[in-house]
Structure formats: C-alpha cells, structure tokens
Amino acid sequence: QQQVKQSPQSLIVQKGGISIINCAYENTAFDYFPWYQQFPGKGPALLIAIRPDVSEKKEGRFTISFNKSAKQFSLHIMDSQPGDSATYFCAALRRNYGQNFVFGPGTRLSVLP
Amino acid sequence: KAGVTQTPRYLIKTRGQQVTLSCSPISGHRSVSWYQQTPGQGLQFLFEYFSETQRNKGNFPGRFSGRQFSNSRSEMNVSTLELGDSALYLCASGTGGWTEAFFGQGTRLTVV
Lengths: 113, 112
Known about the structure:
The complex is a heterodimer of chains A (113) and B (112).
Chain A: E1 4-7, E2 10-14, E3 19-25, E4 33-38, E5 45-50, E6 56-59, E7 62-67, E8 72-77, E9 86-92, E10 102-103, E11 107-112
Parallel strand pairs in A: 2-11
Antiparallel strand pairs in A: 1-3, 3-8, 4-5, 4-9, 6-7, 7-8, 9-10, 9-11
Chain B: E1 5-7, E2 10-13, E3 19-24, E4 31-38, E5 42-50, E6 53-57, E7 64-68, E8 74-78, E9 87-94, E10 102-103, E11 107-111
C-alpha cells in the first residue's frame, strides 16, 4: 500500500512536443504529491507539487493533473526542450508524518533537438 | 544561502567494513532525511531526524543507523557493509513540515 507506480520507464519526445508521465498510488492517506527532477550527478529538485483538494496545478510549462477517485496523477511538460532531459520522479507523502516521501521508480525523459 | 552539503561525494569500501556519511542541512532547517538510490530499487526512504530525534524509519536492516546533532547536522552509518549497499545516498533537509525537501548531491558508495 506504500507503493507509488510510475510510467513510462523512459520517454523520448521531440523538441516542442508534450511529455506526459503518469503515477498511481494505493494509500489514500497520502495527501501531498510532488514531482522531482533529477539531472545526472545531482540530487532531485522539486519541480511542482499538488494537494488532493486540487485537480490541476500549472507552473509555467509544467502541469500536474490529479484524479483523486482514480488515485492517479500525472505530469505534463508542454513545449518540451532539450534542457528538460532528465529523470522525473513522482512522490507521495502524508503531510503530518514527517518528510518520508514514497517515490515512484522514475521516468527517464529525452527531448530530441 | 548554502544548499545541502554531503560529504564525502565518493567512497569505496570493502565488504564487512563500516562507513559514516555526513550531511549538513540548509541553515535553519531542523529536519534531515536520508534516502538510498539504486537503479533497481529507485529512491527508498531510510530515516528522518527532527531536532535530534528519529521521527520516521524506513524498512532497512539495523545495520543502517543515523543520528542528528544539536546543530542539525546528521550522520548516517552503515555497519558490516554488503555488496548490495552500493548506492547513491541522498540527504534532504526541510523545515520539519510537509513542504519542500531540498536534496544534496549525494554520496556515491561503492562496496567491493
């Protein structure tokens, strides 16, 4: 029940295209869902996050869509750029239980120029 | 403002040895959490410390331990190293609530 599933494992998109990464969770106690971006040799960095009382959140080219009933959420990267090439992790957290994130397995995104 | 600092960046140890990794959180942050990252298992939560107390613990054997000092700096110790302990160990600091966790660059541990 603590698992967060993520797909696809890898994704290749042309420059200017839309990248979509999907995640699903089982534990309904999770109430904070961040996305992290990780470049080689670096630690993960927060990209965007959402709470389950919101169905969509947009920050620049990045949008999270959240479906509480389906227990699914997704990251959309509009106008994908080569600089977006990185590994993306979705995560889930129970907000009042400390910072012990449960991460998805990651998606390696390659944006072709 | 300085970020999360982890030392050393790289480490090679022999099976059976023990190792200590260090993490200096962002100034003012009282929460430090540790994660193990491997290609096969991804990012897995080890433990979290808040104000010198372990607040949460992941599903790792007792060979993995940690502590936090009064200045919020944290150390992680792995005893009796196994080949499977080879991984990138990441430290994250936060204010203690549920908001953003800031990750360091990690310590790459190789056990031979």
